[in-house]
Input
Amino acid sequence: MNARTLGKPLDRVDGPLKVSGQARYAAEYPADGLLHGSVICSVIARGRIVRIDASAAEALEGVSLVLSHLNRPPLAQDDESYEDDDAADGSPFRPLFNERIRYSGQPVALVVADTLELARHAASLVRIEYQQQPHETDLRQALDRSHAAPAELPKPRGDADAAIAGAPLSLQLEYELPNEYHHPMEPHASTVMYQADGSLLVHDKTQGPQNSQQYLASVLKLDPSQVRVLSSFVGGAFGSGLRPQYQLPLAAMAALKLQRSVRVTLSRQQMFTFGYRPRAVQRLQLGAAADGKLQGLVHEVIGQTSRFEDFTEHVAEWSGMLYHCDHVRLAYRLVPLDVYTPLDMRAPGAATGLFALESAMDELAWAAGVDPLQLRLTNYAQTNQNEGKPYSSKELRACYQQGADAFGWSTRDPQPRSMRQGNQLVGYGMATGVWEAMQMPASARATLTADGRLIVASATCDIGPGTATAMTQIAAEALGLDPAQVIFKLGDSSLPKAPLQGGSFTVSSVGSAVQEACQALAAQLCDAARQLPDAPFTDGSALRFVDGRVQQGDDTRRAVELSTLLARHGSLEAEVQAQPSKQRERYASATHSAVFVEVQVDEQLGTVRVTRVVSAIAAGRVVNPKTARSQILGGVVWGVGMALHEEAMIDHGLGRCMNHNLADYHLPVHADIGDIEVIFVEEEDQIVNPLGSKGVGEIGIVGVAAAVANAVYHATGKRIRELPITLDKLL
Output
């Protein structure tokens, strides 16, 4: 059988385990004598701990430990030991290191007891006295104290300010986004199993088991061989698990001190005490000809960060690459505040920057009296001007065309407030999306067992996009096997090295390694077949492994079955490290999208409902359109939430988030979501990586918030430049 599996909608290989409850997550692994930890968080935003009175908690039967900076195990003293694969510039946060308080919600103690309920009760009895210092958490109030971000922005090209000043059309615009917090279904948790030899077996909620392993070993001054991290199943992450979160070192410290197994799970409220998409103010200046052709563009970003790390993301760069413009100036500044360091969140930087850029392009279209779609075609970029490189492939025009046709964009009445359905004002909006198509070095091992199974392994993980399924398909395709014969092992720090799962580069990076490992295995099989005493091949013939056998060219009569080779050799194994090709360096590579949105706005109440979305995606070769479609659906829903719902409301007097629960921190639910159509535009790319795949994890959210905001303007005639778009802003 010729098992062509790439591009087919294969069901998730781990689906049965998940729907039957057999898939275990970080907080679900049993251990003999397992203890449970409850984290106590600081109630002040800046200052120091003066005294900790844990006597009432320690007096309770079943309480094993109240861990703080006063009695913790030895920790590394240097900043480098606390850095991880996703660390920002600066001095990383050190949990329970000393008495200093750097943000509200900082972990200050861990109560460990026989049960979680007892640990939480005991935690409520611990009394902590603080010496408070003045704090600052409001970005708006501190804009004048910003400093240049340590980011490599493209150099200015041309003279943007002069071009804008002399342009027939010019706009000066400002946009703002609030803090947005990660809320995966699975809260962060770590189960640290203390082993008889003093080593640690850790089940962690992470996007990189090897990252967590190296972090623990460095911070606790252990040999990496003493720490093994597993993350077999991850209940969502999209950035929240890129860096080791504080429950991991706290659980490990307690396990080492007590020489017992310890589990620490963060509460939903504590999910607001670490990384988030940072609040940002963006100022755009556009200068254009009368037809909307860009002549000059300035994009200035001011984002917030902590006082101990300079968190940066790619916010402004997209404005220099998405549209053709010869005069561009980009700027990025940071305001240090008494907060925790922000963290990458789905399409970090792009979701933020494209909201401002695509809203501004819509405003330019109205100012020029040009259809918003036509304006984007007028300013279409054939090359990436930031890099001065052609694209490895770019089917954005096809995204515009296919998306507009499916949506019915041409039926739109261009005048604001001109379309209605009963008491609902109807609006159409659109936006462009873009995300860089990246590839990182990655390793994989492929083993053919004596019974004919193919076992492929890499230390990547699966935060939900269907990584195990995609890797199974890639391996099956490479060796012409049925996917049912393939087992993909992941989520284990002891497996071949893999990068963090993020940036939409897992398929291109780990997938390329899987493909190369299987191809190396095929070469071994060909060599083994050629050495058979009765090999049916002619001298010097080219052999290939296809459809479960080694054959000479297309001649199925000159072939050796896999079973024959395995009977002779038992099993065969190959391990490779895949690197991005040198050819890639000559090109820019990106995933593109066109998003079209219909909204209905209640004229009396100001409520907004997204009734239809069409998202057309050009992402190269789509390995599994079924799981890929789910990624885009999730991205669109997240984008709707970004536009209409999500907002961390900060009490700046206390320096903490007030709506730190899922009742008050609003997220979209089923009733908020209308029809979503996903179109994968055909795009062939032989340069980006051997698979021709660009990844779809991030692109689904990019541009959605802007498309919603643009549709709201079309419906109401009111431009909302500060997210989320709530009824108080519309009325």
